[in-house]
Design brief:
EC 3.4.13.22, dipeptidase, two-stranded antiparallel ribbon, Zn_M74/Hedgehog-like, alpha+beta, 235 residues, binds ligand LVM2DEV6, globular, binds zinc ion, Muramoyl-pentapeptide Carboxypeptidase, domain 2
Length: 235
């Protein structure tokens, strides 16, 4: 089913995909999806559109004004549609497995229920140019933070966790000091990314984008002004 942000028109600007200067950031290595067997062929997950790389550097500079030796940790960036397909299929299997069900024995209703869960987290791997998966545009990035010791800053849930805890405001009303810290950490990440022009996925604390349909939709929602996306699918 089409999501509201997918109705945003795309006016492709043809800005190139460029490598992320990984030496300036922290990086999850090996790459999590390559480790699961995703094939990138002649592509690399460590690419983004040129202005998105620039904005990510601005966000890290902002972060380091407050926390001088913290860095942004890159989990994932550019994702070909074939990899998006691989990940939704992988997640389908995982969900079936954790529910104790065998994929070959699933009823149509069970399949549909599992797909609904998968698509709560993942975008549909559509090849229709009007509905590109966000990461296939080179404008979306999944990130977290590392502290001065190089340790992951605790956000209270793992990236790609299929649960309520992935919601950015999951811990907002918590009275427990530890949970309040998680929310505080998510806010540090959000504020530096937002100050650099990114929008955050409404259901995922780690997913940010700039210039794609979701970004345009969320920006428009804030300013009540029709905005188009400037980045469509990269072929
Ligand atoms: C699941 C997560 N890594 C992600 O990227 N989600 C968005 C919505 C996507 O699939 O584009
Ligand atoms: Zn993402």
């Amino acid at each position: 089913m089409e999501k509201p942000y997918q109705q945003v028109p795309i006016l492709e600007c043809h800005e190139p995909l460029v490598p992320i200067p990984l030496e300036k950031f922290a990086v999850v290595s090996p790459h999590p999806y390559q480790q699961l067997g995703a094939i990138y062929s002649d592509r690399s997950p460590y690419y983004l559109r040129q202005s998105v790389v620039s904005a990510l550097l601005v966000a890290q500079t902002q972060l380091q004004k407050q926390y001088p030796s913290w860095r942004i940790l890159i989990f994932d960036a550019y994702r070909p549609v074939a990899v998006q397909q691989f990940m939704v299929d992988y997640t389908f299997q995982q969900v079936a497995c954790t529910t104790g069900l065998q994929v070959s024995n699933l009823s149509a209703t069970q399949r549909q229920e599992i797909w609904e869960q998968v698509y709560q987290l993942w975008a549909v791997p559509s090849l229709d140019k009007r509905y590109p998966p966000p990461h296939s545009t080179g404008a979306a990035v999944d990130i977290t933070l590392v502290n001065s010791m190089g340790e992951n800053v605790n956000m209270g849930s793992a990236i790609d966790e299929l649960s309520e805890r992935s919601h950015p405001n999951y811990y907002v009303n918590s009275t427990c000091a530890e949970a309040q810290q998680y929310h505080h950490h998510r806010q540090i990440l959000f504020k530096v990314m937002h100050s650099a022009g990114f929008q955050r996925h409404p259901s995922e604390w780690w997913h940010f984008s700039l210039g794609d349909q979701m970004w345009a939709y969320l920006t428009q929602a804030n300013f009540n002004d029709p905005i188009v996306a400037r980045y469509g699918r990269v072929d």
